[in-house]
Design goal:
This protein is α+β, with helices and mostly antiparallel strands. It contains 4 helices and 5 strands, in the order ααβββαββα. It has one domain.
């Protein structure tokens, strides 16, 4: 599989796996329960991932400004932001896009386990946006 297609293939695997988690657990659990279930099932599928990965945020001159914790980073190319809320709001999308920019990653997905039906949407950030141009 070509490298540029890998994030899309990963997103398909995440979508399928997360839907199965949602179907099994249903809405109503804490975000951490869904995260642990998703991590468990993705690892069973052989994916390499980091749970609760701390990433640093830098200013344009390289000064460290702070840190954030990404819910999941899969194979160093797909960042997942998980929610267990009634609805996805613009702040959730802004959060994911900010994380992508800070992590200098192109691909991310926002998942919400708190609704029926299950919600997942993939987002991308071009290199120029990630670099602030």
């Amino acid at each position: 599989m070509q490298t540029k297609d890998r994030p899309f293939a990963l997103c398909d695997i995440v979508r399928e796996t997360a839907r199965a988690v949602h179907q099994f657990l249903g809405p109503g659990h804490l975000e951490r329960v869904y995260e642990n279930a998703l991590v468990h099932r993705l690892r069973k599928r052989g994916l390499q991932l980091v749970q609760q990965q701390q990433l640093l945020v830098y200013d344009e001159d390289g000064t460290e400004l702070g840190a954030f914790t990404a819910d999941l980073v899969i194979e160093e190319m797909l960042l997942l932001e998980l929610k267990a809320t009634r609805a996805v709001v613009p702040e959730h999308i802004a959060q994911l896009l900010g994380y992508l920019r800070a992590a200098n990653l192109e691909h991310g997905a926002l998942l919400n386990f708190g609704t029926l039906p299950f919600y997942i949407k993939m987002y991308g950030m071009s290199r120029s946006l990630r670099q602030g141009r």
